[in-house]
Specification:
10 helices, about 50% helix, 10 strands
Length: about 375
């Protein structure tokens, strides 16, 4: 189903249509093949970059689309409705570019951003560690100051696009405590940087998730983003935006599951009637539709606050929580609509359900989102 959207400009409507057309022509023919074979779609991200999808929320001076976050997220939702793994990787790429855009100096921005925003170089976000997922202040990967830069030693984990990405937005310890973490932009070809075997995941098979190992890797001083010790501030600033990206991806996935379930319910018959004409099934679909619409409203509201320069951290957590929980429920209910067929790989809804689960975990688990929201109620 094509969702009618309230958008701020004719250009925004055109971008949504571009995302739909590109998704239908580029992504839909490939998604089943690559997800089942667990193979990486080599040319897809370059094509998205060439179309301007990777640069939408960034300034024009660096090759960005200069679009409101409200518009970028709705474009991302359209991508997710066609291929969730690709949409997650797009969201992570945008997340990886944010520190350089928001905290970089002019020389860094002019040198690196055009290729990043144009899709010639793809980024990955490297914050989590094996023992430090939700607790970012517990990072152990160390960047020791040396002449001309830093020597990095340690392991980072759960990196979307790991081993494939061209650059890694790395957060490593340069001091002690919460003020002892710094941010770096690390090229893939850095000596001493290696990657582990891709994780064997439940879903999102076409885009690898790996660990990264730093063995005395030298990072020049000019590749530090922001001030020494400013890393956690930068990381959390990026994560608020990243949570909105995952909320939009979750809504796109839920919309795809709703569409598949509705189409099936209009074709399948039992007791001489289409199953959508049975009230019990029709009400289930109605609840699914209400969940999708409500989730979309939460991320759009948070994005509008971001675009207006208002505080939106709590709203981003609400959007991530509501949208990803909705995606889990809607995709599970979609399998129920299909009955036994929904449990087979002949239909996409079983993949949707597997993909929805991770949405509740990354960019801060939904328990962390509840913690953020509850803390805001005390302020």
């Amino acid at each position: 189903m094509t969702v009618n959207r309230l958008l701020p400009s004719d250009e925004a409507h055109d971008l949504i249509q571009l995302a739909r057309d590109l998704g239908d022509k580029l992504l839909v023919p490939l998604v089943d093949l690559h997800e089942k074979a667990e193979t990486y779609p080599e040319h897809v991200f370059a094509a998205l970059g060439e179309a301007g999808i990777l640069s939408l929320p960034f300034p024009q001076q660096w090759g960005g689309g200069d679009q409101p976050y409200e518009v970028y997220l709705q474009v991302l939702e359209e991508i997710a409705a066609r291929w969730a793994a690709v949409a997650v990787a797009v969201s992570v790429h945008v997340l990886s570019c944010h520190p350089l855009v928001a905290f970089g100096i002019d020389q860094q921005q002019s040198e690196w951003l055009p290729a990043m925003l144009g899709g010639q170089t793809i980024g990955a976000y490297s914050l989590s560690e094996p023992h430090a997922g939700s607790d970012a202040a517990a990072l152990n990967c160390k960047a020791a100051p040396v002449d001309g830069g830093y020597r990095v030693n340690g392991t980072k984990s759960w990196i979307t696009h790991g081993g494939i990405a061209d650059f890694y937005t790395l957060f490593a310890r340069t001091g002690t405590g919460s003020q002892g973490v710094s941010c770096f932009l690390v090229p893939k070809e850095t000596p001493g940087l290696t990657f582990g075997k891709p994780e064997e995941k439940m879903g999102l098979h076409a885009v690898p998730t790996t660990s990264a190992h730093y063995d005395d890797a030298f990072i020049p001083s000019e590749r530090r983003i922001g001030a020494d010790g400013q890393g956690l501030q930068i990381a959390f600033s990026a994560l608020d935006s990243g949570r909105l990206g995952i909320a939009a991806v979750a809504v796109g996935l839920a919309q795809a599951a709703l569409d598949e379930a509705t189409a099936y319910a209009q074709q399948r018959t039992t007791f001489g009637r289409k199953i959508i004409d049975h009230q019990g099934l029709a009400f289930l679909l109605a609840d699914m539709a209400a969940a999708v619409d409500s989730a979309r409203a939460t991320y759009v509201d948070a994005a509008r606050r971001r675009d207006a320069g208002l505080p939106y951290s709590r709203n981003a957590s609400v959007a991530k929580l509501v949208a990803t929980d909705a995606a889990m429920k809607v995709t599970t209910d979609a399998v129920q609509v299909f009955g036994g067929y929904g449990y087979t790989r002949d239909y996409r809804v079983e993949r949707f359900m597997r993909e929805a689960k991770i949405m509740q975990i990354f960019e801060g688990t939904n328990q962390i989102q509840r913690l953020v929201i509850s803390r805001s109620l005390r302020d």
